[in-house]
Amino acid sequence: MLQDKNKYSLKGAVLDAFRGIELVNTLAGKLGLNNNKIIIGGNGLGGSIAVILAALYPNLKGIFLDSPSFLDFRSTIN
Length: 78
Known about the structure:
The protein has three helices and two strands; from the N terminus they run H-E-H-E-H. It is α+β, with helices and mostly antiparallel strands.
C-alpha cells in the first residue's frame, strides 16, 4: 500500500507509523497482545497521522486524538 515514502507530503512519518502498526501485528502473539484490539493516538501532527492510518489500516480498533492538526487528506497520501 505505502511503498515509496517520497510520494507523500508527510513522507517518512506516515510510512514509519504504518510499518510500526504492521510490526505490532506481526509480534502481537509474542508480546501477549490481541491484535484485534489495537488503537492508536496522537497529538498535533501525530493526531493527523493517526487519522490517516485509521483510514489506511481498517483493522485498527480505534483512535484517540488530542488537538490534531488536520491536513488536506488527498495531498497527504497523493
